[in-house]
Amino acid sequence: MAQDTLTLPKDFLFGFATASYQIEGSTAASNRGPSIWDTFTHKDPSPIADGSSGYIATDSFRRWKSDIEFLRSYGANSYRFSISWSRIVPNGGRNDDVNQEGIKLYRDIIEELVRVGITPCVICFQAFGDLVKHWITHNEPWCISVLGYGHGVFAPGRSSNRERSAEGDSRTEPWIVSHNLILSHAYAVKMYREEFQKAQSGAIGITLDCVWYMPYDESSAERVEAAQRALDTRLGSFADPIYKGHYSASLVASLGDRLPKFTPEEVAIVQGSSDFFGLNNYTSNLTQPGGTDEFNGKIINGFVRPDGTRLGTQAHVPWLQSYPPGFRALLNYLWKTYNEPI
């Protein structure tokens, strides 16, 4: 009986995930157009610590067959990868241009994955929907809006700390980006459900990222509230509209008029626009109030408990510590808060 409780179900997907710019290289091959990451990494001076770019990366454009063999050797039965849109629509979709060389590249990859028994997870309904049954619209939209438009450390490199938006308040831009990412996700889901899902029998959703925020001291109501505010801001800014139909009360109270509003028609499209709760989790943090960064709820994070012990095992980068109980706590929180398959 004990052994049965530790056995994963037969349909459990175990695998790996990559992002196109991080692995493909060959940024000008097969009629690929420039992406915002090309522009960002080629700035002078470079915003990348070692000055590198995705020009070569791990050369997966040429080595994808050996990459799939690596997946097989590690026992993977799933592979989530992203589409380089500048390889599919080099001119950004203008004039309905579609680069057939780009379509063929990803088609070949998907066909090989299916042939060797690895489930592909991507987004591009019409070209690949006969083989792909797991669709993800956006991966980690918080990183796009906050790191790309708030802190400026991701492409396109805009920073609300040093630039002013057209609305006159530069702090507004990341929230406008977040709002429109939610809408673009929801309308993509609407299209899939109306035009493709019945015939293709696939599932579609969005993948959000969140660390587990736990109070530095659970006996402190202020610190407990700070941890909840961090979850409402980092995770809830996307999850609450998609799964509940509205932004959280704490986010509305914090941002006021700077937070865009959904029309009733948009709420009807946004709410319920995911067949599952996609989650990326990296670490857990001990949280207390006092920070200045509104993009995570104005909190201070750390790994050291009040008694001086460390939360988990330190990883190779300073912002990561492994803490398995935190992952379990986050999963339980998601199930209780959103009641969705994760």
Our Rg estimate from Cα atoms comes to 21 Å
Helix content: 40-55%
Total strands: the figure is 11
Helix and strand element order:
HEHHHEHHEHEHHHEEHHHHEEEEEH
Beta-strand content: 5-15%
Structural classification:
alpha/beta
End-to-end Cα distance: 25 Å
Can you tell me the overall shape? globular
Report on the biggest sheet: 6 strands, parallel
What is the overall number of helices?
Answer: 15
Structure, explained:
Keywords: Glycosidase, Hydrolase. InterPro entries: GH, GH_1_N_CS, Glyco_hydro_1. This protein has 342 residues and is an alpha/beta fold. It is built from 15 helices and eleven strands. The protein has helices spanning 2-5, 20-23, 36-41, 60-73, 85-88, 100-115, 125-128, 141-149, 173-195, 197-200, 221-234, 236-244, 249-255, 264-270, 324-338, and strands at 15-17, 78-80, 119-122, 134-139, 203-209, 212-215, 277-280, 284-289, 299-302, 313-314, 321-322. α7 links the parallel β3 and β4 (134-139).
